[in-house]
Design brief:
It is a single chain. By secondary structure, the protein is α/β, with parallel strands linked by helices.
C-alpha cells in the first residue's frame, strides 16, 4: 500500500469515526481541502497523469517522418528506415538538429500506429487450443549451466510436455545432438508409460530436420530420425521458423523456463549429470501436485486420466547411440567427435565399433565390450584408464610416474594412498624399475579381484614388510574369505549386441551402364577348342 493510499484510509476513518468536517481533516493532516474531498469520494487515489511532452524541434518534421514510415510498408523488410537512417536524412536533407532519443521516441510510437491504421499490422492475438487427452505433446531443448565436477559447464535440458495434463519429463545431457534427442524421447516414453497418439510439436531442430523446404510445413527429415519416429509411431508437427514458431509450442517453451527458475536456481553443483537426472525424477513427482493456472485439477489428476489413452511402447529395441568405427591410434586412444577415450593397448592399430550415447561412450571389438567411459563435455578432453596400459607399463615402467593415466586414476580415487605406499616400499626394496613392475603386477590383480580386497591385501603386505604381488594376492583372498564371500570379481550383466549399421555396397558402374544397353543377340562363343587344353598331352599339336 502506497503512502497516499494510507493517507486516504486515515482521512476516511477519521471522518467516519469522529465526524470531522472537511476543513478539520485538512487542518489535521495538513493537506488541501480538495485532496480531502477526493479521499472521501474514493478510497483509491486517482492515477497520476503523465504529461504528454511536446518536442518543438521535431514538430516541423513529423509529417515527413510519417511519409517515410508509410512508404516503408511497401518496401522490402531489409530496406526499411531505421531510427538512425531517419535521423541521418533529417540532418542531411532538411538540416534538422535533433537528438537521437527524440527521434527514437516518436518513431517507436508512430511506426506501430501507422501500420495498424493501414491494416498491415493487426494487433497480436492468440487462439486457445483444445487439447484432447493422450494425443498431443511438445518437445524442445533449453540451455542450462551446471557446476559439473567443480567446473561451470553449459548443458542442455530436454523436455517433453503433454499438452492436455501438462505432465512433463526432463533430462539433462552434455549435448543437444541427435543421440541426446533420441535418448530423451526414449526416456520420456518409458517414464510416461506410452506414446502420445496425436502430434508432437517440434521446432526445426537439426537432429530431426535436415532442411526446411521453401519456408513451408514440409521438411526434409534426417534418415535416422525418420527411422526412430516410424519405430515409435510418432506423428511430428514442425513449427514455423523463428519467433512465430515458438508461439506454436508455447507450453514446452514456458516449461523449460519454469524448470530452470525453480529447480536449477541457484546453479546446481554435482559430480555427474546422472545425479541431477535422479533428482529430476523426484522433482517431477512433486510437480504432479501443482495446478497450472486456474485449473481445478492438479497435473497428476489430469495425467491419471490421460495415461491409459497413450499408445503402448513397441516391443523391439531401438539403439539411440550414434555408431562410429574409428581406428585405435598408437597411444591406445580412439577419437570420438572432439574427445579422445582410451581402450586396452592390445587393440592398437585395429578398427573398433563405438556407440556414442547421450551420457556414455561404449567401445566394442566385434561383439565384445572392451571399454566404457562417461561422455566428456569439454572440447579436446581425454579420458584415460590406467588399467588399459598395464601391459605396456610392464615393458616401460619408467613411463608410469608422469603418465596422464596415473594422474586421472589419482583424481578419481582408484589409485589410493595404499597403492602409493606400496610403490614407495617396493622401490626402496627392489629398486626403481623392479619396484614399479611390482606395482603394475599388483594393479593387474584388480582385473579378477575386488578393489577393496586388493587394498586390504596391500595394507597387510606392507604390515608384513613384503613388496610382491603374490603376497598381496594371498592377503586379498584372505580378506574376502574372512567376510565369507568370494574374492573374485563377479560377472557383470550381459551386454546386448550392438546395433551395427548395415554395410551399403557401392553401386556397380558396369551394371548401371549395362542396364541402359539393348539385349545382346549374338550367339555364345564356341569353347570346344579351348576344352582340348584340359586334356592336352605333351607333344600333341592342337593346331
Amino acid at each position: 500500500m502506497s503512502s497516499k493510499e494510507e493517507l486516504f484510509l486515515q482521512i476516511r476513518r477519521d471522518s467516519w469515526r469522529e465526524g470531522l468536517s472537511v476543513r478539520a481533516l485538512a487542518r489535521k493532516y495538513r493537506v488541501h481541502r480538495r485532496l480531502v474531498r477526493e479521499a472521501l469520494s474514493s478510497p483509491v487515489p486517482a492515477p497520476r497523469r503523465t504529461p504528454r511532452r511536446r518536442s518543438p524541434r521535431l514538430e516541423p518534421f513529423k509529417k515527413t517522418i510519417d511519409q517515410w514510415l508509410l512508404g516503408d510498408l511497401e518496401a522490402p523488410p531489409k530496406q526499411r528506415h531505421t531510427v538512425k537512417r531517419i535521423l541521418t536524412r533529417l540532418q542531411q536533407e532538411l538540416g534538422a538538429e535533433i537528438a537521437y532519443s527524440t527521434v527514437w521516441d516518436y518513431v517507436h510510437r508512430r511506426r506501430q500506429e501507422i501500420a495498424e491504421a493501414a491494416g498491415a499490422a493487426p494487433s497480436a492475438g492468440f487462439v486457445i487450443r483444445h487439447n484432447q487427452p493422450g494425443m498431443d505433446a511438445e518437445v524442445d531443448f533449453g540451455e542450462v549451466w551446471v557446476d559439473l565436477a567443480g567446473e561451470r559447464t553449459k548443458c542442455y535440458l530436454f523436455a517433453l510436455r503433454l499438452a492436455y495434463s501438462g505432465r512433463a519429463v526432463h533430462r539433462i545431457t552434455a549435448s543437444c545432438g541427435q543421440e541426446a534427442f533420441l535418448d530423451g524421447h526414449l526416456h520420456a516414453f518409458r517414464t510416461l508409460g506410452g506414446i502420445p497418439g496425436g502430434q508432437i510439436r517440434y521446432d526445426n531442430l537439426s537432429p530431426a530436420v535436415s532442411r526446411v523446404i521453401c519456408k513451408s510445413r514440409s521438411r526434409e527429415e534426417h534418415p535416422r530420425w525418420n527411422d526412430f519416429r516410424q519405430h515409435f509411431s510418432i506423428t511430428p508437427f514442425y513449427c514455423e521458423p523463428g519467433l512465430r514458431g515458438a508461439h506454436e509450442k508455447g507450453g514446452v517453451e514456458g516449461q523449460i523456463g519454469y524448470w530452470r527458475r525453480n529447480y536449477l536456481t541457484p546453479v546446481p553443483r554435482v559430480n555427474a549429470l546422472d545425479e541431477l537426472n535422479e533428482a529430476f525424477a523426484e522433482f517431477e513427482r512433486v510437480e504432479e501436485g501443482r495446478r497450472i493456472g486456474m485449473r481445478i485439477r492438479t497435473i497428476g489428476q489430469d495425467f491419471a486420466h490421460e495415461a491409459p489413452l497413450l499408445l503402448p511402447l513397441p516391443a523391439g529395441h531401438f539403439e539411440t547411440g550414434m555408431a562410429f568405427n574409428p581406428r585405435v591410434d598408437r597411444y591406445g586412444m580412439v577419437a570420438v567427435r572432439v574427445c579422445r577415450y582410451s581402450v586396452p593397448v592390445r587393440f592398437i592399430g585395429r578398427t573398433v565399433h563405438v556407440l556414442l550415447r547421450s551420457s556414455e561412450v561404449v567401445v566394442f571389438h566385434g561383439r565384445t565390450e572392451i571399454a566404457r567411459h562417461p561422455r566428456l563435455t569439454a572440447k579436446g578432453a581425454e579420458q584415460v584408464v590406467l588399467d588399459h596400459f598395464l601391459e605396456v607399463l610392464l615393458t616401460k615402467p619408467g613411463a608410469l610416474a608422469g603418465s596422464e593415466a596415473l594422474e586421472q586414476a589419482r583424481h578419481e580415487g582408484t589409485f589410493t594412498p595404499a597403492h602409493e605406499a606400496f610403490w614407495s616400499a617396493a622401490k626402496r626394496a627392489l629398486g626403481e624399475t623392479d619396484g614399479t613392475k611390482a606395482l603394475v603386477h599388483v594393479l593387474l590383480l584388480h582385473r579378477h579381484l575386488q578393489h577393496r580386497d586388493v587394498v586390504a591385501g596391500i595394507r597387510a603386505a606392507l604390515a608384513a614388510g613384503a613388496s610382491t604381488a603374490d603376497v598381496v594376492a594371498l592377503e586379498a583372498r584372505k580378506a574376502a574369505e574372512t567376510e565369507g564371500r568370494s574374492p573374485t570379481v563377479t560377472a557383470t550383466t550381459p551386454i546386448p549386441d550392438p546395433i551395427v549399421p548395415p554395410a551399403r555396397p557401392l553401386p556397380s558402374l558396369t551394371e548401371r551402364r549395362a542396364a541402359r544397353l539393348p539385349p545382346d543377340q549374338r550367339p555364345l562363343p564356341a569353347l570346344d577348342r579351348w576344352d582340348q587344353l584340359l586334356h592336352h598331352r605333351p607333344g600333341r599339336d592342337l593346331r
